[in-house]
């Protein structure tokens, strides 16, 4: 998933804005992977209480996606514009109106 493990990067200065944006993208990717992982495991578990915990943890990861995405959109306003454009295109082509 990650090209480099962040803790292996030697740094003598703070991350640049571009590097922070990449770190946020990696964090979002990791959270999306975790959501898939926990939900797939939950679907295989028969015990309702244990299955509930896996889904609950998956939902917490979904919140993390939102947190990291909010930061990414703040740091990369161009991405926010492309996302809005993508929402408009989907609405024009399908009638589906995405809302956040």
From TrEMBL:
One GO-annotated biological process of the protein: intracellular iron ion homeostasis
Rubrerythrin diiron-binding domain: residues covered: 24-85
SUPFAM superfamilies: Ferritin-like (SSF47240)
Keywords of this entry: Encapsulin nanocompartment
Location of this chain's protein in the cell: Encapsulin nanocompartment
Keyword Disulfide bond: no
Gene Ontology cellular-component terms listed: encapsulin nanocompartment
Keyword Ribosomal protein attached: no
InterPro entries for this protein: Encapsulin_nc, Ferritin-like_SF, Rr_diiron-bd_dom
Matching PANTHER family: PEPTIDASE U56 FAMILY, TYPE 1 ENCAPSULIN SHELL PROTEIN
Name of the protein this chain belongs to: Bacteriocin
